[in-house]
Amino acid sequence: xxxxxxxxxxxxxxxxxxxxxxxxxxxxxxxxxxxxxxxxxxxxxxxxxxxxxxxxxxxxxxxxxxxxxxxxxxxxxxxxxxxxxxxxxxxx
Length: 92
Hints:
This protein is mainly α. The chain has a domain at about 5-10 and about 20-75. The protein has three helices and no strands. It is elongated, with a radius of gyration of 20 Å. The relative contact order is 0.10. The model has no long low-confidence stretch (mean pLDDT about 80).
């Protein structure tokens, strides 16, 4: 097995086990892009890696769309960010 393929498969398994934040998804996409550009993967593995990249892109796009909606919602009042003080819990 190619060393980088093993590394990528391990990182993909770890991601599924623990979840990734947006930055980690971008890092994974960068690694996928590098591997595909090298052209050293057998076709079946390249297709699998490509599918994972497409999945990460979709997840990232959904995250960005949700973030954009939140920002729009928070700033829709005259372009100002609404501020509502929250009651703090008092610990004894």
